[in-house]
Structure formats: structure tokens, C-alpha cells
Amino acid sequence: MSDQALASPPIAGRSLWQDAATRLQRNRAAMASLIVLGLIALACLIGPWLTGHAYDHAYQDYVRTPASFESRPTAEAIPAAVQRVAARIRATPSDIAVNGDTVRLTLSAPRPIDQRLLVYFDRSDMFGTPKILATAEDGRRLSLEVPVEHLRFLFGTDGNGRDLLTRTLIAGRVSLAIGLLATGVALVIGVVYGAAAGYLGGRIDMLMMRIVDVLYALPFIFFVILLVVFFGRNFVLMFLAVGAIEWLDMARIVRGQTLSIKRQDYVLAAEALGVPTRDILTRHIIPNTLGPVIIYVTLLVPKVILLESFLSFLGLGVQEPMTSWGVLISDGARAIEGAAWMLAFPAAFLVTTLFALNFLGDGLRDALDPRDR
């Protein structure tokens, strides 16, 4: 048997990122959190098209309707609804009989009933277009068959009669988008700024970090109020304002990592070979700072979502008819005594997302820590 046949096959090595991915997959809490975040994002993305309700449509007959799997209106509520519509027609209903998806009734009045007023059934959220079965007493008595429009509100409705499930999912889009976009702004500014300050060093580093210290001293709420006064309230402003502040912590983290990395042999070798400063930053410095940066990003997203919720709670965030989890929680807090579901469901989505992001951040921290292998 030849020496070549006896030689063992080469062992394939693994990079730091492959090793980190393997360690992350073994972390059950982090993987479960990743699945939960994916499901929440998918629900917020496609869910509003599946609920059957528009997020800004107000059902005047279903204001503050409790959450339920039962379709509305119930058979017990139909006679009262017929009474309300008949009062607008100035007629008296009788012989009300509910039969599945239709209701039969008789309208009577001292004067001939104007059939054009039957449109009030159409305008109701509970009924469709009525059908006249018979006319008696010169039009003073009408026999009608009215279809019943069945609706479901799994999360109930808010104080304006809007479906809370649809609004919670739409709010998730806004809150998650603000969290990701603001974090993206903070990531780009903070990484570039911190890497440049740490690598250049000396007086440039001192000047750049003093600018960071000055920005730290500015009150965040005051800064946001100024932006609102000058540019108005809009969605883009929210993530620009939050991202323009949150990059300060990112810059400090990246600067600290850069101060350590720039003394490594491969960076010194690149400098000796005459590699331009820009290439050293983009090829050697920034890629090797991404471990702590990724961990901080997973912790920054929930922080940004909480900041947006806080600003919306104060009335400085997203405006009607658009909404966010902060806006819904603010509305639910004001109606907690009589409509607790208005607070419970948006708060549950927000808390679940924040917990999942924090567990994922802890898992990434453990997976990317070279000292914990």
C-alpha cells in the first residue's frame, strides 16, 4: 500500500464566522427568538392584507368592540340595530325574524315611507342592501328582507371603531421599519466615524471625540422637538432624528476596537507596503470590528423602538391615520379601564419583539466572543 493511500485526507478548517454560526445554532433561546422575530415580521408584512379590514376604516357600529372569535353582529344585537336604523327612517319595525345571514322585518309609519331612506341600511356596518318583499297600506307598511354583514374582530376595535388586529400589524411595520432604518443610519455614521477617529489618532482623534462629547450633552427630546418644528412630523424624520443621535455610542465602540486592531501585525504590514488609508480602513479595520458592532445592533434596534414608542406616546411621533406600537399603547393606556384589549395586544407584540431581540443579542455575543470557545 502506497504512502499516498495511507495519508489521511486534509481537515477542512472553519472561519470565525462559520464557527460563530455553529455556536449560534446551538443556542436554543437565540434561535427561538430568531424564529419569533421572523414570524412577527412576516405577520406585519402580509397580515394586513389577510384580515379583511383596512387599517383606517372606522366601523361606527362597532366602537370599542371586545376581542372575540365570534362574528359580529350577534343574533341578540340585530333587533337593536334594526331599531336604530328604523328610527332614522322614521318608521317602526315589527315582526323582526333573524334567519342566518338575513333578517326579515316589517316597517310601518303614519305616512308613506320614502323608499330612498332605505339606504340607511346600506350605510350601516351591520346590513347590506334591503329587498322589498311587499308593500301595503299605500306605502305606509313595507315588508323587507335585509342581508346581514358578518365581520370578525379578533383583537377587537379601538375608540374609533377600527380593527385593532390590522392596526397592530400596520403599527408593527412602522415600529420595525423605524428601528431598522434608524439603526442603519447609526451603523453607517458610527462605524465610519469611529474607525476614522481611532485609526488616525492624535489631534484628529481628540477633536472628533470632543465633537461626540458635545453632541452627548444635547438633550435628545429638545433635538427632536426642534426637528419637528422645522421639518414637521413625518415618518422619515423619526428615523433620521433617532439615528442621528444613536450613532454616538456606536462611534465610541468602533473607536475602541480600532485602537486595538491598528496595532496588529497585518495592519502594520499593510502600512509598510504603502496601502492607502482608505483601503486599510475598509479591508482591515472595519471588517474586524463587526463582531461587537453586530451585537450592539441587535441591542440598538429594541432601544430605537422604545424611543419611537416614547416619542409617539408624547405626541411627537407617527400621526393619524398611520400608527405605531407606541401610538396604540398610548391610546390603550387612556382606555385601560373600559377597553383593556386596546392596551394588551399592542403591548404584547412590543414586549415579545423586545425580548426576542435581546435574547438574540445575547446569543450573538456568546457566539462571537473569541474568549468563550
Automatic annotation (TrEMBL):
<dbReference type="GO" id="GO:0005886">
    <property type="term" value="C:plasma membrane"/>
</dbReference>
<keyword id="KW-0813">Transport</keyword>
<dbReference type="GO" id="GO:0015031">
    <property type="term" value="P:protein transport"/>
</dbReference>
<dbReference type="InterPro" id="IPR035906">
    <property type="entry name" value="MetI-like_sf"/>
</dbReference>
<dbReference type="InterPro" id="IPR025966">
    <property type="entry name" value="OppC_N"/>
</dbReference>
<feature type="transmembrane region" description="Helical">
    <location>
        <begin position="293"/>
        <end position="318"/>
    </location>
</feature>
<keyword id="KW-1133">Transmembrane helix</keyword>
<feature type="domain" description="ABC transmembrane type-1">
    <location>
        <begin position="172"/>
        <end position="361"/>
    </location>
</feature>
<keyword id="KW-0812">Transmembrane</keyword>
<feature type="transmembrane region" description="Helical">
    <location>
        <begin position="174"/>
        <end position="199"/>
    </location>
</feature>
<dbReference type="GO" id="GO:0055085">
    <property type="term" value="P:transmembrane transport"/>
</dbReference>
<dbReference type="Pfam" id="PF00528">
    <property type="entry name" value="BPD_transp_1"/>
</dbReference>
<keyword id="KW-1003">Cell membrane</keyword>
<feature type="transmembrane region" description="Helical">
    <location>
        <begin position="211"/>
        <end position="230"/>
    </location>
</feature>
<dbReference type="Pfam" id="PF12911">
    <property type="entry name" value="OppC_N"/>
</dbReference>
<feature type="transmembrane region" description="Helical">
    <location>
        <begin position="29"/>
        <end position="50"/>
    </location>
</feature>
<dbReference type="GO" id="GO:0015833">
    <property type="term" value="P:peptide transport"/>
</dbReference>
<comment type="similarity">
    <text>Belongs to the binding-protein-dependent transport system permease family. OppBC subfamily.</text>
</comment>
<dbReference type="InterPro" id="IPR000515">
    <property type="entry name" value="MetI-like"/>
</dbReference>
<keyword id="KW-0571">Peptide transport</keyword>
<keyword id="KW-0653">Protein transport</keyword>
<keyword id="KW-0472">Membrane</keyword>
<feature type="transmembrane region" description="Helical">
    <location>
        <begin position="338"/>
        <end position="361"/>
    </location>
</feature>
<protein>
    <recommendedName>
        <fullName>Oligopeptide transport system permease protein OppC</fullName>
    </recommendedName>
</protein>
<keyword id="KW-0997">Cell inner membrane</keyword>
<dbReference type="InterPro" id="IPR050366">
    <property type="entry name" value="BP-dependent_transpt_permease"/>
</dbReference>
